[in-house]
């Protein structure tokens, strides 16, 4: 499963140029999770990640390539939560190694469902004092941090452990590399472009599932399939003679 591999490769190359702090995952390290959404009022907030119109990028990429993620890890690029005083640009990116899910005779349903389940994990993580606001329209993930959580010692390592603990409940997931980025030197516009592309790839899988036409020449998704290695093979299986590109 290589659909997202070029995005992963580019993202890892881009982020590796920035100074980083890396922490191994530990289930015991997770910040308290409330299990349900919590409202952090403006007056109780210290600041917002991605607030005041700053970038707030989020995406998750899955891969079956074992070369990208070798262990569960949290990587912080830029200031950590307790070093931040005001709104900052923000990105949270998950690179997730999964079992190879085979697509037989163009039946993308098992793969699409697995990817969707992994993508939905983020909607079930509720760290205390860390209120996530997402927008599916532009893939933003903005976070309001409460003063109380800061005083109690919240940081990205503990938040990352909470996220990874939730990811690891999915039996398809083997390892997760989770990035929290606040470094102003990061190329957030490029990361936002990757986020959009990830969304387009997943959308294309869902459209194939709905029963797309088999003529690539007249298909609206052709620009995505032209760019993403492996997409046509997913749609048509090994019988490439079926499609007209
Ligand atoms: S493989 Fe061709 S028909 Fe299938 S979604 Fe892509 S462009 Fe459309």
What's the CATH H-level homologous superfamily?
Bifunctional carbon monoxide dehydrogenase/acetyl-coa synthase(codh/acs), Chain M, domain 3
Given helix and strand content, the structural type is alpha/beta
Stretches where pLDDT falls below 50 for ≥5 residues? none
Write the CATH architecture name.
Answer: 2-Layer Sandwich
Widest beta sheet: strand line-up: 1-4-8-5-3
Heteromolecules bound: iron/sulfur cluster
Order of secondary-structure elements: HEEEEEHEEHHEHHH
Helical content stands at 25-40%
CATH topology: Bifunctional carbon monoxide dehydrogenase/acetyl-coa synthase(codh/acs), Chain M, domain 3
State the gist of this model.
This protein is α/β, with parallel strands linked by helices and 245 residues long.
What can you see in these coordinates?
It is a single chain. This protein has a single domain, classed as Bifunctional carbon monoxide dehydrogenase/acetyl-coa synthase(codh/acs), Chain M, domain 3 (2-Layer Sandwich), CATH 3.30.1650. The protein is globular. The strands form 2 sheets. The chain has a 5-stranded mixed beta sheet with strand order 1-4-8-5-3, with helices on both faces. It has a 3-stranded antiparallel beta sheet with strand order 2-7-6. It is built from 7 helices and 8 strands, in the order αβββββαββααβααα. 31% of the residues lie in helices and 22% in strands. It has helices spanning 5-16, 109-120, 147-151, 156-167, 188-211, 222-227, 231-236; strands at 21-24, 45-49, 56-63, 73-77, 90-98, 130-135, 140-146, 173-181. The mean pLDDT is 90. Helix 2 (109-120) packs across helix 5. With 245 residues, the chain is of the alpha/beta class. Bound molecules: iron/sulfur cluster. Iron/sulfur cluster is lined by residues 204, 208, 212-214, 216, 219, 221-222, 225, 231-232, 235, 243.
